Amino acid sequence: MAPTLHTKFHILLLIGIAVAAAVLSSGCMQSPGPAQESGDAYQNPPPPAIASDLASIVSAGLRDAGAPGVLIEILTPKWTWNYAAGNASVSPAVPATPEMRFIIASVTKTFTSVAVQQLAEDGKLSLDDPIGRRLPADVAEAIPESSTITVRQLLDHTSGIADYDEDAIVLEEYMNPDTPVPYRTGMRQGLDAGLLYPPGTDYTYSNVNYILLTLIVDEVAGVPYEDYVTRKILVPAGMNDTFVHRTNHIPGPHMRAQESDADGTVMDFSDLYIQFDRGAGDIVSTTADLNRFHRALRSGALISPASLAAMENASPQSQKIANVPGLLEMSVGCGYGYFAQQNATEGLTLYGHTGGYYGSYTAWYYWAEKDTYITMNSNTAAKAGRVNEEILAPVLRYLKDGATNGE
Question: What is the number of other CB atoms lying within 10 angstroms of the CB of residue 81?
Fold first, then answer.
């Protein structure tokens, strides 16, 4: 069993990496948007015609993508639309509902980035500090280049530090679901591989960068990363349905992280520990809460405008032209736990992050030209590209044609 399962994991991991670098229908329903301050236009429902059009686009797209289910929330300056289509679980079949939680995977990195920048704004560290000055001594000693690599280079993935073998770690937990793999296991894999290139000279997306950042938060903040993120980000942003995942169970209604094999076998990754991905992919949230976070981030409630601008500023090493499924050619680059994707011809500038975990794909974006927030989750990673092409891209095209103005 193990070799076959490992092969399947490898395919899913490649999809997850590609998604992070980029960017059947039953049980559909509408629910109220997230609670906002009185008079906030974001809390209004969309005109019925727009709600109907969007529901048709998402439901048809889900069918065409062949994905089990999807959750989506869109916040425009005039309205909020929150929707679910398809099933939250393949086996047994359970309809998806808008308030369901899901594993946000690498969208977690933006939370960790915000935590580090808060500490920098408080004068407790500098992004240009060598990481050896901020890491626990035993970890710093395991990185010969710790006096050269900076905090900034961890944030934008230009450190040269290698990633861990996620296939192997998830396989181990899948076979032994009651035994968590410690985050230091993956961290050591990345460090033991040695630097891929001199720090600052290239770009490699690596989860180990963000595990190291959590250790810096531990040291500098004087409290564990988990507590810091909860007190300084989740609570101020009003994210009552979000938490750092530390058990092998997601409480309450949630999207199951399942993948179906060609022969119909369902692999369920929902009830694994995700401690191995500390600060890189270990948060569980909802579409409404992720949009709350994004609004708080961009409004100045969490970090200063200068820090946000730095987050948006993609490193030269990361910038490339990529064909994003359904969105044609876009300029893509990575800032501090925050990606920028742009197609100037189409008037499409997206800031945010994506997250791919086995059985879960999250797209989390702010559309600059439309001042619009979009969060989407589908309970498949294997079909993430199809979900982008059949659901996300058609929604963006529809909104671009004037729907956000209530036309």
Answer: 24
> Residue written as tokens 């580090």?
116
Return mean pLDDT, the chain.
Answer: 90
DSSP at 182:
P
Angle between helices 305-312 and 108-121 (to 10 degrees): 140
Residue 71 pLDDT > 80, yes or no?
yes
pLDDT bracket for residue 404 (50, 70, 90): low
pLDDT given for residue 263 in this prediction: 81
Residues 6+ apart with CB under 8 A from 347: 369, 400
Q: How far apart are CA 317 and CA 61, in angstroms?
A: 35
User: What is the dihedral sign for C-alpha 51, 54, 60, 61?
Assistant: negative
First to last CA, the chain: 55
Dihedral of alpha carbons 33, 35, 38, 40, sign: negative
How many Cα atoms occupy the beta-carbon half-sphere of 331 within 13 Å?
A: 15
CA-based R_g, the chain, Å: 20
pLDDT digits (tens, 9 = 90+) for 231-240: 999 999 999 9
What CATH code is assigned to 2-405?
3.40.710.10
- Residue among 29, 154, 110 at smallest CA distance from 363: 110
**pTM summary value:** 0.91
Write down the pLDDT at residue 8.
Answer: 40
What's the average model confidence in pLDDT over 210-215?
A: 98
- Whether the bond between 92 and the residue before it is cis, its omega within 30 degrees of 0, is yes
Strands 243-244, 283-285: pairing is antiparallel
Comparing CA positions, the residue from 250, 149, 127, 136 lying closest to residue 206 is 149
- Residue 213's SS3 state is helix
Domain positions in the chain: 2-405
Report which of 210, 214, 239, 240 is spatially closest to residue 227, judged by C-alpha positions: 214
